[in-house]
Amino acid sequence: MTLRVIQWATGGLGQAAIGQIQLHPDLELVGCWVHSESKAGKDAGELAGIGPIGVTATNSIEEILALDADCVLYSPLMPNPKEVAAILRSGKNVVTPLGWFWPTDKERERMTAPALEGGVTLHGTGIDPGGATEQQPLFFAGLSSAITFVRGEEYSDIRTYNAPDVVRHIMGFGQSPEAAMNGPMLALLDNGFDQSVRMCLDTLGFADAEIRSSREVAVATAPIDSPIGEIQPGQVAAQRFAWEAFIGEVKVVRVAVNWLMGDEHLDPPWKYGDGGVRFEIEVKGDPDCQVTIHGWHPTGVAAGLERNPGIVVTAAHCVNSIPYVCAAEPGLLTFVDMPLVTGRAHPDLAR
């Protein structure tokens, strides 16, 4: 049975998702919500850069809620729980990369009520968070025993992220260290990555732990060319965010992101290391395991601005989850409650 899907928002992730929905044999795009009036009335396929597909975008929430559909892939810049609750009450499942990976009891109660009212399911997924920071560490922990530590960590060239206003004004790149450290980014990230850490703690059965978050910045020592303009000496050109769980003083979980405007002309002199841009998964137990993931980063800045694999991977994780979410019992659904989520064969090679 073909599932009817609505794409909510057409930023980089939404554009990638539209293309992947079109390629998925079990899914059909039937609606598209956009924020701006300039996009309303346009073909969703044209907004995604794949050509017309016969689905007209709208900026009317009422039209989307009234549309007959099985699932909404919800991916605006920031989540609005009231919007998600309204979508759920309208009888549509929701898959999103913006939270609800491992909600607190209070948040679970808040979102379960509209899901049960609509008879549908809410599922949070993604990559970082939503994948490399908890799903992959837990997967590889399944190949070991007596676990003492797990880690999911990202090393990325932030110049490849084609969202200049977000990079400068929200992330704080190109600002003074003081302005960046007092900016909103750590608070914005806390909710998702805190859930990643708690998912690892709870699923692996660790004792009560203290979660500590941290943020470090490095500044340019010489002008650095970037898509947000030239980063001047003394301005923020790299950042590290980490969320770590301790039982006493024993570190048992680390989730971290390392975002650099390249690894030259930085103070402190941070480097990507021998592995370059990558994701790393680590498990300490019997036996230990360390995995390095390449391919989820573009080959260079220009390629990333054209099509960033990290965004495509995030979209794929959402799109591929839709059939499983639609088949689930109503309520909130996390990764640990689901069967193995896989992609599907290319149409040219499918049965």
Could you characterize what this model shows?
- The protein is of the alpha/beta class and 351 residues long.
- 31% of the residues lie in helices and 24% in strands.
- It has 11 helices and 13 strands.
- It has helices at 12-23, 44-48, 61-66, 81-89, 105-118, 135-141, 164-170, 177-181, 185-204, 301-306, 309-326; strands at 3-8, 27-33, 71-74, 93-96, 121-124, 149-157, 210-220, 236-247, 250-260, 266-267, 278-284, 289-293, 331-333.
- Strands 10-7-8-9-6-11-12 form a 7-stranded mixed beta sheet. The protein has a 6-stranded parallel beta sheet with strand order 2-1-3-4-5-13, sandwiched between helices.
- Strand 8 (236-247) and strand 9 form a beta hairpin.
- Helix 1 (12-23) crosses helix 11 and helix 4 runs parallel beside helix 5 (105-118).
- The longest helix has 20 residues, at 185-204.
- The chain is globular, with a radius of gyration of 20 Å.
- The two termini are 15 Å apart.
- 43% of the residues are buried.
- The mean pLDDT is 96.
